Every structure is written in C-alpha cells, then in structure tokens.
Amino acid sequence: MATQKKKTDRRLPARKTRIRRKIYNEKHIFSFFLLICFLQSLFLGGLLYVLVSLHIPDIRNVANYQPSQATVLYDRYGRVVDRMFVENRTVIPLSAMSPHLPKAFVAAEDGRFFEHPGLDVVSVFRAAVNNFRKGGRGQGGSTITQQVAKSLLLSPEKTYVRKFKEAVLAWRIDRLLSKEEILYIYLNQIYLGEGAFGVEAAARTYFDKPASRLTLGECALLAGLPQAPSRYSLFNHLPRAVKRQKYVLNRMAADGYVSAGAAKNAYLAPVHLRKRQHVISSADNYYLQVVKKRARAVLGMPLQQAGAHIYSNLDSRMQVKAVGALRKGVRRSLERQKKSGRKGAIQPQGALVAIETASGRVRAVVGGIDFVKSPFDRATQARRPAGSTFKPFVYATALQKGWAPDSVIDDSPVSIRGEMENCGSRATIPENIMAGLT
C-alpha cells in the first residue's frame, strides 16, 4: 500500500505539468491567431486607406458604356455625305463586325485575354524585365481590360501610381463584365488614328466600308494600329503598317484563329485605301446646311453631341449636275455682260432647287456658285418677288390648257368700264390701276 501511494504521489506533479504546458500552448496559439488577425486587419486597413487615398474611380461608368458618337448624314442612296462629331465614333455590336476583327485585336494586343483575370502577370513580368534592361518604361504589359480602364477612367500619364490604379480597375472590371462585353467596349473605344475612334469609324476612314465588310488583311492592318497610330499610319507609313500587319497575321495563325495559308494570302493581297480626306463639294454644303438646321431644331441639341443618323432626300449625282448647270449659266451671263460692253461687270450669282414632282422631295439645292466664298444660300434665304415665285404655277396651268411655249398673247392696253354697286352712274377705273393691268 505504501509503495502504491508513493507512485500515485509521483504522478500528480507530472499531470499538473502537462496541464500547465497545455494551457501555455493554448495561450501561445491564441496569441498567434490574435497576432495574425491584427496583422491581417492592419494590412486590409492599410490597403483600404491606400485605395481611398488614390481616388480610384467608380467602374459603374464602364458597365453603362455610352460614349460620344458621331452624327451621320446620308443621301437618298444611303451613302454617308457628312459626319459631325466631338469624337468620330460609331458604336456597333460585335455581331456587326467582321468575325476576323476581334480575333485580330486579341492576337495583337492580348493573346491570353480569355484566360487571365484582367491582369496578365506573365506579360507584366516580361515587360518589367525588358524595361529594366533598357532602363526605361517602354513596355507596359497592359491587357485589353487595362486599356479599357485607362481609356475610360484614367489619365494617360505614365506613372507607377497610374499603373497600380489601372491594375486594380482591370481586376474589378473583369469580375463585373464578361469577356465579350469588355471586348465590345474596347473595339468601340480604342483610338486608331486619323481622328477615328473605334473600329467602325476606322473602317470607313481607311477603307470606305463598314467594319462588317473588312477582309482578313484589312482587319490585321487595323489591329496593328493601337500600339502607335501615328507610327503605323496607313496613309503616312503604309510599308511600316504592312510590316506590322505581318506580325498580327502570324500571331493569329499561331493562336489558331486562321490557317497559315489564309494568313499568307491576306498578307499578299493588295491594300486598297480610300482617299485621305473626304471633302464634300462646296455646293453640297448648301443642301446640307438646310438639313442640319432642321435637324438641330428637331433634336434640340448640337449635332456633334447627338449621335444621330440623319437620312436626307439629297441625290448626290443630281446635285453634281445641278452645280455644273448653275455655274455654266452664271458663266455665260457674265460673258454676255462683257460682250455688251458693260464696264466693271459684277460677278453674277444664282440659285437652283430641283424637286421630284411625283413625290415633292427636294433632290438638289444650290444656293450660289461657291459656298466657301459666299455661304449665303440664295435658294432658301434670299427674298424673291412674289410674281416670280408664282410664274411656274401660271405656266403649268397654261400648258395644261393647251397653250404652247410659242403661243402669242395679246398684251395691248385694256380698258374696263363698269357700273358701281347700288348706283346707276358709270365709274371709270383710275389710270394708275389701269397702268398696273397693262
């Protein structure tokens, strides 16, 4: 019994020691987790403070994408005759673009666009290494999502703070929108040189066609522009742009968007550019000024901000002929004045309005021989005698009655006598009225 009691007494201190160690360990574990929570809160609080102090913009404006668009004016054939804009842009859905177009931009600008979460760490690391070697900031490694964030929400300066904001915004945008929605915004927002914003405006500026009709080679040319629109300008540096086109086509083939043969054929195809400037003839402006004035009254806002599509009754081919006819007639009038010996003959002006009699639609308006030198519209703004305005109706009635252009009309003086009402005496019409009748 004594031996057993001694053994029990020896076990008691050992058990108390284990309990104390357990309590000690639990306190350390609790303290460790408390420290972790404190550090995590400190980190999140610091991060929140940094984000607030950086004034990172709200990304809801990206989801509600409503950019400034051009107001487009068409003639009767659906051809564009004028564009009015703050930014030359026409927003179109992905379905209204050539199927090669989005693929060309993804291949050229962001090959892993459909894989990364708005940020491509591999591209950023590669750009950082290249910049370190060159000792500058030449490459940014920006994804398409980052370019959307920069274009819509940030200023263009090249600073590390702006890049950090751009990265945060790109990550948030990638979680807010689908990849197709981001690509839709990017392709309508990107600047592509020559004052063209978005692929639709660029397609019409460079190739005089909508984005839906672009060929593979033309898509690759446009996709090469975002890196440096002025350096790869299709008008100023076409050989350099074609070299960039080759790179884009090779990337498309490498990523499986097109076959190698299709890429080669697109590269070898000739490039057909439109004329650099689409200058509307000075005479056309008389017609367009009338249309614009009425459109502003209907819309109640400047046309540059309306983003409207205006369809007019202008017949562009008839307008050209009307301009030629008016200038020819004015030129002959001036020649007759000179032949008659008139000294100091003044340059005559003229006006012409062509109306389709079957529908009453105005097809051509010329308000002078040169809109630039004389923008006053004599067709719609000048005051004309009422008699001259009424003559076409009189002539039309006469022709309907069977009169011919060479019919002789007796215009000798006429005397009309009659009796005054409620009076038996005869009255004579005053001579001044008679003079007006002769």
**Rough outline:** elongated
- Secondary structure category: mainly alpha
Mean pLDDT score: 81
The number of helical elements comes to 16
| Cα-atom radius of gyration | 40 Å
Indicate the topology:
Elements: H1 2-54, H2 60-63, E1 71-74, E2 80-84, E3 88-89, H3 100-109, H4 121-134, H5 144-153, H6 160-176, H7 179-189, E4 196-197, H8 199-207, H9 216-223, H10 238-254, H11 260-268, H12 284-299, H13 303-306, E5 309-311, H14 316-339, E6 352-355, E7 362-366, H15 386-400, E8 417-419, E9 426-428, H16 431-437
What does this structure look like?
The structure is a single chain. With 438 residues, the protein is mostly helical. It is built from 16 helices and nine strands. Helix 3 (100-109) crosses helix 10 and helix 5 (144-153) crosses helix 7 (179-189).
Short overview:
By secondary structure, the chain is mainly alpha-helical. It is built from 16 helices and nine strands. The N and C termini lie far apart (162 Å).
Features:
disordered C terminus; 438 residues; two-stranded parallel sheet; 16 helices; mainly alpha
